[in-house]
Amino acid sequence: MPKPDSLQGSLDLLVLKILSRRPRLHGYAIMAAIANISEDVLRAEEGSLYPALHRMEEAGWIRAEWIARESGRRARIYELTPLGRQQLESEESRWQAVSTAINRVLREA
Description:
single chain, globular
């Protein structure tokens, strides 16, 4: 049984949406944004987020770049590509259709 805070099936959508609004974020900032915006209802764990970011980069939906931070440490930042914007639209449409269907079942059951 998935945990209540599981992002099963929706992580790509959330990451793409966050990067569409806040470009050039690093992985930890993406995790924090998901938690903050959802008021700590949703959590993206490192073990799920980083493989998803890698997969989305390979698909051409996001691009990554290493930058030097003021602390001297390097950070990998991510931003949406034009193909990622198309994928976001597709993911949002799919989510809306699923949400509508679930709401119908909840009202009728």
